[in-house]
Write a structure and sequence with these properties.
Blueprint: E1 6-10, H1 15-30, E2 34-35, E3 44-49, H2 51-60, E4 68-73, E5 83-84, H3 88-96, E6 100-112, E7 118-120, E8 123-127, E9 134-140, E10 143-156, H4 164-167, E11 180-187, E12 200-202, E13 207-212, E14 221-224, E15 227-228, E16 236-251, H5 256-264
Parallel strand pairs: 1-2, 1-3, 3-4, 4-5, 4-16
Antiparallel strand pairs: 6-7, 6-16, 8-10, 8-14, 9-10, 9-13, 10-11, 11-12, 13-16, 14-15
This protein binds nicotinamide-adenine-dinucleotide.
């Protein structure tokens, strides 16, 4: 059922991983796929590893919206990996028998000051890099909503809602709802500083501005999924849902809520 044929394998370049990937490459060729060695030629990108590898695959390949991403886990099923290496034949069978579907996952577009936008599949996190709290003015659209003082904030996508966001008691969001969720990291709430104190979810057309108050502690660590950005000084972080999505191949029989149940209940 998949008409795209140019397949690029993304994995950690180690002898152990090569040993795992080679049979997968052979299987793909036997089934009519054409292996390519540059990302530009690819229209299917297969990440081999865990969720970590999948997050890296999307980042290192530039969040291509003209490609199909497939996550193959070397261990157990993950949140972005619907297939496992131990079940390769089943994977090909599923593709041929229409047991798979393509899901479009929302991603965040993050612009820091006037830098080039970056994209996040799980979340963008902003944290103080010193023991002292830091202050962020939170603006929704043009509206000054609250002033945050604490360790930091997490802005997550629906698929990222089960990751870092969930660890700080954010809600799990169905990925069919295009939205972004804002969660606090240890906000200070007293008679002087007040924040909402709960996570909140913004709709697809909202624009969030996080203005880092320049009080000497304005060198936050900014994380994009599993990477820390090298930007050392940030004044303004603008976050919205990107116009682009990433397309992910998944098993019809492995819904988001099945993943949530399997992993958390
Ligand atoms: P990692 O090795 O630190 O693993 C974190 C765990 O999160 C792994 O078990 C991974 O499979 C899982 N994970 C990743 N994306 C997920 C998702 N969308 N839903 C549910 N679980 C998910 O790092 P990694 O594997 O590279 O993952 C990076 C992610 O780790 C970050 O994007 C962030 O969401 C998360 N993280 C969580 C915490 C925390 O919970 N306190 C702290 C830092 C980062």
């Amino acid at each position: 059922m998949i008409s795209r044929k140019n397949l690029y394998f993304f994995y950690k370049q180690t002898p152990d991983m090569q040993e795992i990937v080679t049979p997968l490459e052979d299987l793909a060729e036997e089934n009519g796929f054409h292996l390519v060695h540059t990302i530009d030629e690819a229209n299917i990108i297969v990440s081999v590893g865990g969720d970590n590898a999948f997050l890296q695959a999307t980042r290192k390949t530039g969040f291509r919206d003209d490609c199909l991403y497939i996550g193959v886990n070397t261990d157990q099923l993950g949140f972005y990996t619907d297939f496992t290496i131990s079940d390769q034949k089943r994977m090909i069978q599923a593709m041929k028998n229409d047991e798979v579907e393509v899901r479009r996952y929302p991603v965040l577009e993050v612009t820091i000051d006037n830098e080039k936008p970056i994209f996040c599949l799980n979340e963008c996190s902003i944290r103080s890099n010193v023991i002292k709290t830091f202050v962020i003015d939170v603006v929704i659209d043009e509206f000054p909503f609250e002033t945050f003082r604490g360790d930091g904030m997490i802005v997550s996508t629906p698929t990222g809602s089960t990751a870092y966001n969930k660890s700080v008691r954010g809600a799990v969001i169905d990925p069919t709802l295009p939205s972004m969720q804002v969660s606090e990291l240890a906000s200070l709430n007293n008679n002087q500083y007040r924040t909402l104190g709960t996570s909140f979810v913004l709709g697809p057309d909202r624009k969030l501005l996080l203005n880092v108050v320049q009080d000497g502690n304005d060198h936050p660590i900014i994380g994009a999924d599993n990477e820390a950005l090298s930007i050392r000084h940030a004044k303004q972080i603008s976050i919205k849902l990107a116009d682009r999505h990433i397309k992910v191949l998944k098993l019809k029989s492995n819904s988001f809520w099945q993943k949530v149940q399997r992993n958390f209940l």
